[in-house]
Amino acid sequence: MPYERSNIAAMSGYMPGEQPAGDRLVKLNTNENPYPPCDAVMAVLRDFPAQRLRRYPSPTAAGFRQVAAAMHGLSPENVVPVNGGDELLRLVITTFVEPGRPIAMAEPSYSLYPVLAQIHGSPMVRIPLADDWSLPRDLAQQVLEAGAKLLFLVNPHAPSGALTDVAALAELAAALRNSAVLVVDEAYVDFVEPALKHDAVALVRRLDNVVLLRTMSKGYSLAGLRFGYGLGAASLIEPMLAKTRDSYNTDAIAQALAQAALMHRDAAARTWAAVRSERDGLTAALRQRGFNVPPSQSNFLLAAVPQKAGGGPADPPTARRIFESLKARQVYVRYFDQDRLRDKLRITIGTPAENAALLDALDAALKE
Length: 368
Ligand SMILES: *Cc1c(COP(=O)(O)O)cnc(C)c1O
Hints:
Blueprint (H helix, E strand, L loop, with lengths): L5 H5 L15 E2 L11 H8 L3 H5 L7 H11 L6 E4 L2 H12 L6 E5 L4 H9 L3 E5 L10 H8 L3 E5 L11 H11 L4 E5 L15 H6 L3 E6 L12 E5 L1 H11 L7 H12 L1 H24 L11 E5 L12 H12 L2 E2 L11 E5 L3 H16 L1
Parallel strand pairs: 1-10, 3-4, 3-5, 5-6, 6-7
Antiparallel strand pairs: 2-8, 7-8, 9-11
Helix pairs in contact: 2-11, 4-11, 5-6, 7-8
The chain binds pyridoxal-5'-phosphate.
């Protein structure tokens, strides 16, 4: 007899991207920053005092929260620290959704959302994005009609890189107010073109039903560290900070390194500029080879494989074949075997050398 809850027995779990070992391969499959964490962060790690390991850390990451709050023009009560952004996704479900009540997401999107809903015992309402990956006009209405308590949006969108502007998010959140919490997963927001002046933090000050997810994993080159944070109205953050979070959910080393990373944001920002510049170059190079690549505000591109001669869409297996062929050449990208994505590859922006290696391998694969 299985001892698991029936919903756990019935589910299959999150399938992470491959994490192959080895330094020789070109790893463009899980959206890591291709540049190392900054020197100031590495110095904190190197000089970390033994005494601070012996003792428990600040349970609420007080030092980090102060720095994060100042950076965003908020107060510490608007900030909840988490052991990687993924923990925040679980926390918002635990905190705001009665088990069994529906949760909504725009589709396609981060495949962890439905897994977390299954663990919670909640049905997932999947609302398709428009053809250009923008939000459907009746999104709020669909969420309300389904009776969902929570809506997950990732912005910039994964896996396309499309950006929804703050005015549209504000309108959506206002329509959901008093019914549902809007979670804007900003895992990739650091890579948005600065000239766009995109800043969703303003929503947190005006609306009591918006939670923003931030992570140190992508923008700050610290995916191995496991540290992220949520931003929201104090009334939304308080139950997560005081009740539903594990008592010491972030460790002393992660708190110190994350704090140093924010204090030296300028160094990280130089890597974002480099990624944006490579993003432009790689987009152009892929388009030149016949891929259809929508503009991305993130650190990855979603590239539809070239159409067949004569103008018809490529065979669905073509993208998978190219994916396998790249892998055989030690170049890892991501392939999603799901609707609307079977003819596409998601490619993380690498260093100039990595992107050149990708293009070489791609040229070879396309000739096969
Ligand atoms: C990477 C990512 C996160 C958070 O990742 P962590 O490493 O857990 O901080 C959240 N959402 C999306 C869409 C991501 O790609």
